[in-house]
Every structure is written in C-alpha cells, then in structure tokens.
Amino acid sequence: METQVKQAESLTRSAFLLAFDLRKEKLTQRGELGYLLRAATLAELLLAGNLADESGKARALTAPAAEPGSLRAVIWEQISSSPPRSWRRWVQKDNGKAVRVVRDELAAARMISVERRRILLFPVERITPRKAYLSRRLAERVGRAIRGGQPVGHLDEDVRVLAALATAARLKTVVPSWRETRLRRDRIQQLSAPVEPVATALRKSVEAARSAAASGGG
Question: CB-based burial of residue 89 (10 Å sphere; 0-12 exposed, 13-18 middle, 19+ buried)?
Fold first, then answer.
C-alpha cells in the first residue's frame, strides 16, 4: 500500500495532493500553492542532475525527459533559455499558472475532480481529491518525517524532500505549530540538505508574500 502513496508520480503532484485539507474538503493556502509546486519541480530537476546550484543561482545542465506542457518542461524551458538567476525568482515566476498546469494534469489522471460554477457572476472552482486516502497517507508520512522518530537518512527521498518543502511553505496540513517547527530546526535542516537552495527560496518567497499581504491588510 505504501507504493500507492508514492505513485502520486512526482514530487510536484504529491505536493498538490498534500495541500488538501481533508477536514475542510478544500485546498489550503491556495495563494501560495504555486510557489510550493514550482519548488517541488525545481527540487526534482536538481535531484535528477538537470539543474545545478551556482552561487545561489539555478544553472541548466541537461534537459530532462518531460511531457510537453508539463510543469517540468515549462520550468526547464524558462531556466535553460535564461542566464543563471536566483532560485527564488524561479519559485515565484508564473506561480498561478503552475497551479493550473498541475491541476489539469491531476484532473486528466482522474486523481482530482474540478467543479466550476458561478456565484453572483463570479467564477468559483471547487477541487476535491478522488482518492482522499492518498492525501491522508501522504500527510501522515510527511508529518512523521517532520516530527522525527526515524533517522533522516532512513527516509524515502520523496518523503524527505516533501517534508522539507512543506516545512518551508509552512503547509498547514502537515506542519506543526511555528513554535514546534523552531524546536525542530536541526531536523528540518537535515531534511532540507539535498535541496537546500530550493527550500530556502521557497521559505523566503512565502514569508515575503505573507508580509506583503499583512502590510496590504493594514
């Protein structure tokens, strides 16, 4: 059954499924989800050797095998056709489009259902998982990875990286309170080590977005 959880196919798709709040039956932190999805794709490319970190910037190395139009293909095209730029730039770029691309992939794979309607002339989109147990098991595994119990080196790589990214994004579905996160700082650093520049860029992007939202609200 564990393999079924891993067959969310990619870090990016898994990150989308991880963002479902099953109790509220909706995606959480929708405004920041694009950052998480792009970070997950960047992490995939970094781990696969398609990208390298060059003094805090993403540098293209070798092209990945990627379906045309997939987020992996889109991000690779953006980075490979540009001079090296900061990881944070690539986390933030076109983040709204990232959500739509991955949503459409998961809908086509019948992993989620998408219902569109209008309320008072405004379009409303409701996204729900078709296999809620996958999101639940994924959240349980990632939550355990963050809280500890098993040495970081014994964790599956996908779970380890998802835990690092979920923590960087402060994803409410799996991340403990901010106080607990601070207490687990050393473990989180260990989790993040393989994708450290991506995790750091994601954390700073989310922090900046929240700070801007708070300033706007004031």
Answer: middle
